[in-house]
Amino acid sequence: MSAIKGFSEETFTADDRTFTLFRKGEGPGVILLHELPGLTQETVEFAEWIADRGFHVVMPLLFGRPLQNPMLGLLKAPFFCIRKEFNNLAAGKSSAITVPLRKLCRKVHAERGGRGIGAIGMCYTGGFVFAMMLEASLLAPVAAQPSLPLFQPGALDVEPEILAFASSREDTMSLLGLRFEDDGRCAAARFERLEKSLQNAAGSARPRFRSITVPGKAHSTLTLDYQTALDQGIDTRELVLQHLRAQLLD
């Protein structure tokens, strides 16, 4: 029996790292990476929203417990795990956890088929999709308020050569970025760096990187502060859905 109602549950092991995966839906695959509070009810609700609109969502449990209370997740944040597998401070360096996540991209694409897959990272996991762009199967990455490395507003948690590779891809891979205008954990300088690092593919009308900035001071563009974005007249989830459809279905 799955720990999350309505989702199947299985394990996935790569590079000595084992994840519990929660899956739901039909259609092209979309990997959804939860935020620092853990795999909360808000993240599950977002996953259901995506699955109901024609995609197969795969949520790896990166830390904590399924359906973890957001406040409990913050109070008991697994800092030992984060120090070990997340790159909190070093600029220009991918988190170690992105290596098995790239293999998960291959697995999901092999199972679901189609043109390719999507991947959505949020907050601490927002920048994981940068390193995952090494995988040819990943055509629709989304970086929602990427927050690492900490205390370096213009830095990215990925090697410059990975961004150079992503920029040189000859396919239509396109990265969508989302942030709130006054979010101190994801400053405008971070997206400006991405804009400079990712060049459009030759002859492609689709931008390699497209960013959406929501007015106001909030953080979680797709989950905890989604209503704040709606109040500002921007449906961030709908923008993600349009991105997934354009990259994977059109």
Descriptive tags:
250 residues; alpha/beta; 8-stranded mixed β-sheet; 8 strands; globular
3D structure, described in words:
It is a single chain. The chain has 250 residues and is an alpha/beta fold. 33% of the residues lie in helices and 20% in strands. The protein has 9 helices and 8 strands. Helix 1 links the parallel strand 3 and strand 4. The chain is globular and about 45 Å long.
Topology record:
Layout: E1 8-14, E2 17-24, E3 29-32, H1 41-51, E4 56-61, H2 70-75, H3 79-85, H4 98-112, E5 117-122, H5 128-132, E6 138-144, H6 160-168, E7 175-180, H7 188-197, E8 209-214, H8 226-231, H9 236-248
Class of secondary structure makeup: alpha/beta
Count, helices: 9
Q: Summarize the amount of helix as a percent range.
A: 25-40%
State the major sheet. 8 strands, mixed
Distance between the termini: 36 Å
Unreliable stretches, pLDDT < 50, 5 or more residues?
Answer: none
Please give the radius of gyration in angstroms. 16 Å
